[in-house]
Hints:
Elements: H1 2-6, E1 10-11, H2 14-21, E2 31-32, E3 35-37, H3 42-53, E4 58-62, H4 64-68, H5 74-84, E5 91-94, E6 97-100, H6 106-120, H7 127-145, H8 164-170, E7 175-179, H9 192-210, E8 216-218, H10 226-234, E9 239-245, E10 257-259, H11 268-274
Parallel strand pairs: 1-2, 3-4, 4-7, 8-9, 9-10
Antiparallel strand pairs: 5-6
Helix pairs in contact: 5-7, 9-10
Amino acid sequence: MRIFSRRxxxxxxxxxxxxxxxxxxxxxxxxxxxxxxxxxxxxITHALPILRRYNAPATFFVPTGFLDNPRPFWWDRLDYxxxxxxxxxxxxxxxxxxxxxxxxxxxxxxxxxxxxxxxxKKQQMSDHDFxxxxxxxxxQLEQESGRALSNIQKxxxxxxxxxxxxxxQYAGNDVTFGSHTVEHIRLGLVNAEIAFDQLVRSxxxxxxxxxxxxxxxxxxxxxxxxxxxxxxxEYGYVCQFTGEQGLNHMGDDLMMLKRISLPVDMxxxxxxxxxxxxxxx
Length: 281
């Protein structure tokens, strides 16, 4: 935040960005929208104070089912479970993909888990079957170690989910909440009926709790299809974030917006180079 503010970037709300992209407001150079996925509690407790220090609006995309029923996401659950067991040399399988885990060191285990997630997500299987396979692996490891992330999550700053009470408290001019579906469903890997339910129900939950219109959807893992995009458009979403990396220009389709991921290990020069966005957001 300090690097961008010193370089003359202006932090704007998603609403203002949509107005600019539609040509309803003049496009302001060096404009940046900040978005956060998954509804982690640390978005509120850790990030928001820093955002407000820089007068930076933000949009938080929340999977509403995880607020109704707090529990770890599969990737956090499995990450924790892998760290509690000796898994070196163990063969794991997700769909048709199998690999040998390397836990000879902490960095090796981190890389092994990254590879497992990256390749497993590319398997040709439904979102339900994929999550079921990942959960089954986590359950097996939890049973072996006697430890589970769900037992400590409420006190864990990394994995805890924000509450509806926090959303009701902080929803305002500088904080908006958008949909990340109900169950963090990859929309492009489910049928139209499930996609409809996930899109409509999550939108209604957010509007009921905040008293404000929910206009934005961020597709979990960037997964979407022409059919799910049409459903979102028909049922009141004004903009949709896809998984595509890049900048947005005036006249772009608001239902196909791009974003830029900002890794924590980039230098200041690299960060600025990655988001060079004069006349774009």
